[in-house]
Design goal:
By secondary structure, the protein is an alpha/beta fold. It is built from 13 helices and 16 strands. It holds the Pfam family ADH_zinc_N_2.
Length: 522
């Protein structure tokens, strides 16, 4: 009888090994007669498309004998050895099953599922899950109560003449998450009352621990939707703003280089009639003193999205070099819009050799033609394609791309990108190599640190006068409706900067407080 090894192999007449069980991981510290005793094992051979399959079954609790095993265990061991040795030397036929009945000397029992125990365990798991949810709710309520206590402690530290008696503001909207229609709370300003009480008694609010209160001075637009029309009663939202910090937590804002009186900028969805904005400190970018805030607002509305689209999908450290795109060829679809003009400027600064632009069929006044008219000129030679016409038919774009070319589709607003056609085009993009889709708002939300680095680089370029945003005109809040209707009919040549009434706060001392009617939150 061949000695027992760590590996057991079954062979047919030709000597081919059909199955192998590895027992090298067994614990050999307890042995009997220098052999492992594996109880309740059953080895079967089953045909499957002219190949054998062997299955080893064991109880859930495999036991190993010690030196004090009884005679019954020794007898069982000998039976197991005889079975395995006979399997080693037996010649198998295609339909033969090497096995013993479960009722024979193997003394095996079927592992039946105890449904009663299973249901009890399931019920216990559900109870524990419900209890965990209740505990989480209690912890969340305790944290909210602790935050309220901290705010009350801050109010007690300030002088009594600064902090008024607690009062309920009826027009304060609740804080909302980024996924909501707007990511900030707003206290809508009564402008007539504001100008009437400009020199009156003023007070300030206590921001949350992570928030900074900013006095908004300007915002910029490169396009307008239907909400800006004079006939629309819906709330108007901006996507960026610049201003001056009026209040912040020193310990938290120190890591971002913020302080009271510091000029900052941010990209956020907010109501355009806001005056004071409450926003987390990690979403603010310091603005150099030598640049104008209107230029910074235009930079965020046009140049930052263009820079992101130009380098989307590339490693960021290489994007800040003036030679990172030397010798490349660029194709821009969508016409000479404000964003595409900024993209052309950033591409030239990066060393792009040739730039091609084509527009939509209805953009006849932009002096660009459809790609179908001159596609043969750029066929197979474009390194970068930035598509502002999504959803679009990509047949011509695929022909224009070089072998290792890159396609970036700039997604429109969520409500404009809905529908069957958009989903079909997104499916086509997913099947294309080196093709990406850019949702700038989502990009800012997810890649905050990367956007901060991009904005810092663009501010340096602005300070050095390598770039100078083109401003179409300056408007007031009341003039936005008329400008928006005009911009829909005729494309803008530059950003529209809206200067808010809070610009008068710039030269006021930082300690000066503001009245309730001047407050607003983002």
């Amino acid at each position: 009888m061949p000695s027992r090894q760590n590996h057991y192999t079954l062979s047919n007449r030709s000597g081919r090994n059909y199955g192998e069980e590895n027992y090298s991981s067994f614990d050999r510290s307890n042995s009997y007669d220098e052999r492992d005793i594996v109880k309740h094992r059953r080895v079967t051979a089953q045909p499957s498309s002219s190949r054998y399959r062997y299955r080893a079954r064991a109880d859930s609790e495999t036991t190993y004998s010690s030196s004090s095993c009884s005679s019954a265990s020794s007898s069982s061991e000998e039976d197991d050895d005889d079975d395995v040795d006979s399997l080693s030397s037996e010649e198998f036929e295609e339909e033969e099953v090497v096995d013993e009945d479960l009722a024979n000397s193997h003394d095996c029992t079927n592992m039946m599922c105890d449904w009663g125990s299973f249901l009890c365990d399931l019920e216990q798991d559900l109870r524990e899950q419900n209890q965990q949810q209740q505990d989480d709710g209690i912890i969340e309520r305790k944290e909210e109560a602790q935050i309220d206590e901290q705010r009350q402690d801050v109010r007690e530290v300030l002088p009594e003449e600064i902090v008024p008696e607690p009062e309920v503001f009826e027009n304060v909207a609740p804080t909302q998450e980024l996924s909501q229609p707007h990511d900030c709370t707003s206290v809508f300003c009564d402008w007539s009352s504001f100008f009437g009480n400009l020199h009156g008694e003023r007070e300030d609010t206590i921001a949350a621990n992570q928030d900074v209160i900013v006095a908004v001075e300007a915002t910029a637009f490169t396009s307008f939707d239907d909400s800006f029309s004079a006939s629309s009663s819906s709330e108007k939202y901006g996507t960026n703003f610049v201003g001056v910090i009026r209040q912040c937590d020193a310990a938290l804002a120190e890591q971002y280089g913020l302080e009271v009186g510091k000029r900052v900028a941010a990209i956020a969805r907010w109501t355009v009639n806001s005056q004071l904005v409450s926003i987390p400190s990690d979403r603010l970018w310091p603005v150099p003193d030598q640049v104008d805030l209107s230029d910074v607002a235009s930079l965020m509305s046009a140049y930052l999205p263009a820079f992101t689209a130009l380098h989307h999908g590339r490693a960021r450290p290489y994007c800040y070099s003036i030679t990172c795109l030397t010798g490349r060829r660029l194709l821009i679809t969508g016409g000479l819009t404000v964003e595409s003009r900024a993209l052309i400027r950033m591409a030239k600064l990066a060393g792009v050799e040739e730039i091609f632009v084509h527009g939509k069929g209805e953009m006849k006044d932009q002096q660009v033609h459809m790609l179908d008219d001159w596609g043969w000129v750029v066929e197979g030679s474009i390194d970068i394609v930035v598509d502002y016409c999504f959803p679009n038919k990509f047949k011509a774009l695929r022909k224009a791309l070089a072998k290792h070319g890159r396609l970036v589709c700039v997604s429109k607003q969520q409500d404009e990108a809905q529908g069957i056609s958009s989903m079909v085009e997104q499916l086509k993009i997913s099947k294309m190599k080196r093709a990406t889709m850019l949702d700038f708002a989502e990009h800012v939300r997810v890649n905050g640190e990367q956007v901060r680095a991009d904005m810092k680089y663009l501010l340096e370029m602005l300070s050095s006068r390598y770039i100078r945003p083109k401003i179409d005109r300056y408007v007031t809040l009341e003039e936005l409706s008329s400008i928006s209707s005009e911009a829909i009919k005729k494309p803008l040549t530059g950003a529209v900067v809206c200067e808010l009434a809070s610009r008068h706060i710039r030269n006021e001392p930082p300690g000066k407080m503001h009245s309730e009617k001047e407050r607003d939150y983002v």
